[in-house]
Write a structure and sequence with these properties.
Elements lengths: L15 H20 L9 E2 L5 E2 L22 E9 L8 E8 L9 E6 L8 E7 L6 E8 L2 E8 L12 E9 L4 E4 L5 E2 L1
Antiparallel strand pairs: 1-2, 3-4, 4-5, 5-6, 7-8, 8-9, 9-10, 9-11
């Protein structure tokens, strides 16, 4: 290691006064930031007919919705949900992954789309993307770019035990103006 030809400079050694000055400056910035606040945010969203949305519309809640799911003595459980505007009307829909609250095993999932009337009425199921009778389990569930995507775990035959799905299929649903169309981005394969 080569020694520096320049003598050590006094300002390269920290002293307690440097720490006090730094702490005072930080405290001043924090105090000033609590006094100076930005104005409240305002935004306008243009709808399909060019009208401006004054306030954001809340996505439909899953609470109290009767899902078309036969659970017998146990209740239906919303395992996952996501909200977004799937049909481009400026009002969000909610997509819910629902199954029966079974004490054992892996109950099959149903995937449902919820909406509410323009007047803000009670949320209701308007589409079923996955029927529970298909015996599928939904993973990697997401709502992006006005499309619902998920990975569906299923069974190659009735002989495969319910604990151990052996088929994995990616799926995507997109609204085409009158119905949700399902596409499969990549082929199904065994797990």
């Amino acid at each position: 290691m080569q020694q520096s030809a320049v003598p050590e400079l006094a300002h390269t050694h920290t002293r307690p006064i440097h720490w006090v000055a730094t702490a005072t400056a930080v405290a001043g910035v924090v105090a000033l930031s609590s006094v100076v606040q930005p104005g409240s945010a305002t935004a306008a969203q243009s709808g399909p007919e060019g009208r401006s949305a004054a306030a954001a519309v809340a996505a439909p809640s899953t609470a109290g919705v009767q899902f078309p799911l036969e659970c017998g003595p146990v209740k239906a459980v919303v395992a996952r949900k996501a909200a977004g505007d799937l049909d481009g009307d400026g009002r969000p829909e909610t997509v819910a992954v629902v199954h029966c609250d079974a004490p054992m095993g892996t109950p099959p999932d149903g995937v449902y789309v919820l909406t509410r009337a323009a007047d803000g009425g009670k949320p209701r199921v308007v589409a079923t993307l996955v029927e529970p009778k298909q015996r599928l389990t939904v993973t990697d569930f997401a709502l992006r770019a006005r499309a619902v995507s998920a990975t569906l775990l299923g069974y190659s035959s009735d002989a495969v035990p319910s604990c151990c799905p052996d088929v994995k299929t990616p799926a995507k649903w997109r609204w085409n103006g009158s119905a949700f169309l399902r596409s499969t981005p990549a082929g199904a394969h065994s797990v």
